């Protein structure tokens, strides 16, 4: 059985989500996991069951994931060996954490939640338990300046900043401390 393995999958256009993905990767590695990181590119296929923890993240685009991520989620569920079974019986030894970056200027966290839940459904349909969501505020460079200064989170022009990334690190360490008795995460230092 797979033990102590994690993967961080992400898509980014302007770099915010990549910063978060890299901090997740570095935190998992520091804690002693064997961790890979991969951007979501065309025709990528990932066997989720080769890992014990899967982080998958993207920016929020109009309340959902960007198209390349939607395409990956759909195509990857059709990979060899996947059969969707009614009631989606849980697969032991593996769990997923969807994450995102988002501006949140209009309605705050409500802009992130549908996308995170939507990604989560692709895992849960395969029986992979979704154990947490991580949403991180990120500047929206294409938008009007006011969107980044006068929205629900105030001035977000430099986010995600070091404070956000330190919080991400804490969340990841918390996930490891929470899950180490029920997932084969290996010998952890966290
Ligand atoms: C086309 C587009 C649509 C977006 N839609 C939303 C949205 O609905 N809600 C939101 O909070 N942020 C939205 N954003 C802001 C991005 O989610 C945010 O800037 C994100 O951090 C960008 O990530 P990246 O730097 O990894 O590409 C949108 C950005 C773009 C470019």
Structure explained in plain terms:
It contains five helices and six strands. The chain has one domain: Flavodoxin domain (Rossmann fold), CATH 3.40.50.360. Strands 1, 2, 3, 4, 5 and 6 form a six-stranded parallel beta sheet that branches. It is α/β, with parallel strands linked by helices and 190 residues long. It starts with a strand and ends in an 11-residue tail after the last helix. The structure holds flavin mononucleotide (FMN). Flavin mononucleotide binds next to α1 and β4.
Ligands bound to this protein structure: flavin mononucleotide
What kind of sheet is the major sheet?
A: 6 strands, parallel
What is the H-and-E element order? EHEEHEHEEHH
Question: What is the helix content?
Answer: 25-40%
The total strand number stands at: 6
List the uncertain runs: none
**Global mean pLDDT:** 97
How far apart, in Å, are the first and last alpha carbons? 23 Å
**Based on the structure given, which CATH architecture is correct?**
3-Layer(aba) Sandwich
Number of helices: 5
| Beta-strand content estimate | 15-25%
Coarse structural class: alpha/beta
**CATH fold annotation:** Rossmann fold
Return the domain count. 1
- Identify the overall geometry: globular
- Give me the CATH superfamily: Flavodoxin domain
Top-tier CATH class: Alpha Beta
The Rg value, from CA coordinates, equals 16 Å
């Amino acid at each position: 059985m797979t033990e102590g393995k994690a993967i961080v999958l992400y898509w980014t256009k302007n770099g915010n989500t990549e910063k978060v993905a890299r901090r997740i990767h570095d935190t998992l590695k520091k804690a002693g996991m064997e961790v890979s990181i991969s951007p979501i590119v065309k025709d990528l296929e990932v066997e989720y069951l080769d890992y014990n923890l899967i982080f998958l993240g993207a920016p929020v685009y109009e309340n959902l994931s960007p198209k390349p991520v939607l395409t990956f989620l759909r195509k990857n569920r059709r990979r060899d060996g996947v059969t969707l079974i009614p009631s989606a019986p849980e697969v032991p030894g593996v769990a997923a954490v969807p994450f995102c970056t988002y501006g949140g200027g209009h309605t705050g966290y409500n802009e992130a939640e549908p996308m995170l839940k939507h990604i989560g459904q692709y895992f849960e349909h395969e029986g992979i338990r979704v154990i947490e969501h991580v949403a991180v505020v990120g500047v929206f460079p294409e938008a009007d300046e006011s969107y980044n200064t006068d929205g629900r989170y105030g001035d977000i022009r430099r986010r995600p900043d070091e404070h956000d990334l330190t919080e991400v690190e804490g969340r990841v360490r918390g996930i490891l401390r929470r899950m180490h008795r029920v997932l084969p995460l290996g010998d952890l230092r966290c």
